[in-house]
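Input.
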Amino acid sequence: MTELLNYKFSFFRKNKYVFVPNEDSIDKGHSLLRFVEKEVSFPRSFYHFAKGGHVEALHRHIENKYFFRIDLQRYFYSIGRNRIARALHSAGFRKARTYAKWSSVKSPYTDGPAYALPIGFIQSPALASMVFMQSPLMKAIERLISEGIYVSVYLDDLIGSGRDKRILEKGFRYILAACEEAEFTINMDKLAAPDDHIQAFNCDIAMHRASVTVERIEKFAARHGSPAGEAAFDAYCRKVAEQNRR
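Output.
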């Protein structure tokens, strides 16, 4: 059987495998995105599709006193072809299995599914989110939100917050168990158990305050970026700080 060729080439950068789709794959990606835009509604807790993105998510959390963070490791590459097809089929997409093949590549990792969702395809974030929505992890998040713990999702990054540390610790353990059940691996290097301050998205988070970390500012300053880049970074830092006063 001839191998489906849906990408031009791949490369490894910043500890990630990236695949560059070919023209046929790009066309099918756009078709999928048109379908998703018309037929799929994502939860309000999915901030990668919301105005303001992760900055908005951070400032939703600082209303609370305690926080946790869970990062999913190799998120896209943990999602196999069959899970993509099931998510598309459930949403009513007629050619679910065919488009699942066009939206997956032979995984560069030996563990996990043989064919997986790649970084680099335009439809990957939407498909990953559709799979996420059908997983036990989504059900766990919805339960915690109904119980007063707020959980935001930004692709593979989850932040939870609440007023009571004991209750948040219980919710934290519940989410960790749901990750395992959903077959999403946790990045232990970025895991932050409930505390009165954590770091996420290169920002410090505490009650009533979010700010870009000193380390991130120093790293940017050491790069000697362009004037336009410096202006954009300064504007971003101000945006993070200014929204604390909302």
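The chain has a mean pLDDT of 93.
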